[in-house]
């Protein structure tokens, strides 16, 4: 029996308050723009992030996709980090569907990009090159271990892009984790971004949904792309209702997930065979290395102990979330100790 699921914060379930709000949500047809609950969520999200407008979409992937399609055309280039989710884990949608060239810029350990590398990639304006239109930054940076990128770091990257006329999109799937970790309002973290997408369905524990925010013009263009992708939804207020509850009740508690992640990270650091840089455990993601080619076996053994984690060849990930308490973390630590004693001796 699975007792603790640490694969991702996406496995979190909605709170009782969210379920009630979904049940009772006042509904309309959002394609006609008259779903009051959706309109309320979009207005709330835009206000919280200091942007003019917002649009609900089905997923983080769709928020990134419509943001890119709305700001870069066929044959245009989008710059993004080598560790970015858009490049590594979104099925190449912007290239396949939008004819966009995705040009990776080396990201450092924390997930930031060297501004000079951005300048160098953004600069060329000649007929051999696909024009560079957009720079993407990610916060928190999933593949760097959930690092929270500061407003100063974001500004440095954004300024480098703007020098060459680039717009800036932020994949803020977990922007509220960054805000809580940095004790900085989310609006300050996204001030440099023309568009910012955040997920309701991860640490905020909604069952579905993301919101893309930006100025009214770009959000209108994103709505057109959402329609083309088949992503316009009708009585989507059932989802938006949970989103409103999430923005009201689920942000401050992210600090609990961060504390649980630190507890997990500190325990893992003591175990033989595990490599972890505790400095990267800034939010709710705990990434660590295990002996080469043993990752999947370790994940399978943990599963036998009732603990699910995200496996890989030699890199593993645990992500505490709503529904995981300190006792669950102890269960995971104890199981991991038994497994690593067998694997690493
Ligand atoms: C940083 C980041 N961006 C985007 C996404 C995509 O979100 P979704 O799974 O809702 O498509 C994820 C998902 O884990 C993510 O971690």
Overall description:
The chain is an alpha/beta fold and 345 residues long. The protein has two domains: 14-249, Type I PLP-dependent aspartate aminotransferase-like (Major domain) (Aspartate Aminotransferase, domain 2); 253-344, Aspartate Aminotransferase, domain 1, CATH 3.90.1150. Helices cover 43% and strands 14% of the residues. The strands form three sheets. A seven-stranded mixed beta sheet has the order 2-8-7-6-5-3-4, with helices on both faces. It has a two-stranded parallel sheet with strand order 1-10. Helix 2 (36-48) runs parallel beside helix 11 (237-249) and helix 3 packs across helix 10 (216-228). The radius of gyration is 20 Å and the shape is globular. The mean pLDDT is 97. The structure holds pyridoxal-5'-phosphate (PLP).
Supply the number of structural domains: 2
In this entry the ligands are: pyridoxal-5'-phosphate
Distance between the termini: 26 Å
- Structural class based on helices, strands and sheet pairing: alpha/beta
**Poorly predicted runs of 5 or more residues:** none
What would you say about this model in short?
With 345 residues, the protein is α/β, with parallel strands linked by helices.
What's the structural blueprint in terms of helices and strands?
Elements: E1 4-5, H1 16-24, H2 36-48, E2 53-57, H3 60-71, E3 77-81, H4 85-89, H5 93-98, E4 101-105, H6 115-122, E5 132-138, H7 151-162, E6 167-171, H8 175-182, H9 186-189, E7 195-199, E8 210-214, H10 216-228, H11 237-249, H12 254-269, E9 286-289, H13 295-304, E10 307-308, E11 315-318, H14 326-344
Parallel strand pairs: 1-10, 3-4, 3-5, 5-6, 6-7
Antiparallel strand pairs: 2-8, 7-8, 9-11
Bound molecules: pyridoxal-5'-phosphate.
């Amino acid at each position: 029996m699975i007792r603790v699921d640490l694969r991702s914060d996406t496995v979190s379930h909605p709170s009782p308050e969210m379920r009630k709000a979904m049940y009772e949500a006042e509904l309309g047809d959002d394609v006609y723009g008259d779903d009051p609950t959706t309109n309320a969520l979009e207005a709330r999200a835009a206000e919280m992030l200091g942007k003019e407008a917002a649009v609900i979409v089905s997923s983080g992937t769709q928020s990134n996709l419509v943001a890119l399609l709305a700001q870069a055309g066929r044959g245009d280039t989008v710059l993004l980090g080598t560790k970015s989710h858009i490049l590594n884990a979104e099925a190449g949608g912007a290239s396949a569907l939008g004819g966009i060239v995705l040009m990776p810029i080396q990201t450092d350990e924390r997930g930031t990009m060297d501004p000079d590398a951005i300048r160098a990639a953004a600069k060329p304006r000649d007929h051999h090159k696909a024009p560079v239109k957009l720079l993407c930054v990610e916060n928190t940076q999933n593949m760097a271990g959930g690092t929270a990128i500061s407003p100063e770091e974001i500004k440095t990257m954004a300024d480098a892009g703007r020098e060459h006329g680039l717009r800036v999109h932020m994949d803020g799937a977990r922007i509220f984790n960054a805000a809580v970790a940095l004790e900085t309002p989310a609006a300050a973290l996204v001030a440099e971004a023309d568009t910012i997408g955040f997920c309701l369905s991860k640490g905020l524990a909604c069952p579905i949904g993301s919101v893309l925010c930006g100025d009214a013009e770009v959000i209108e263009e994103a709505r057109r792309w959402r329609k083309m992708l088949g992503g316009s939804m009708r009585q989507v207020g059932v989802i938006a209702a949970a989103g409103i509850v999430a923005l009201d009740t689920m942000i401050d508690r992210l600090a609990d997930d961060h504390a649980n992640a630190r507890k997990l990270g500190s325990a893992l650091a003591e175990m033989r065979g595990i490599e972890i840089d505790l400095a990267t455990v800034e939010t709710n993601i705990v990434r660590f290395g295990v002996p080469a080619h043993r990752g999947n076996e370790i994940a399978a053994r943990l599963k036998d102990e009732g603990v699910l984690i995200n496996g890989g060849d030699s890199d593993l990930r645990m992500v505490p979330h709503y529904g995981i308490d300190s006792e669950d973390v102890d269960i995971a630590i104890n199981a991991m100790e038994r497994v690593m004693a067998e694997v690493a001796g």
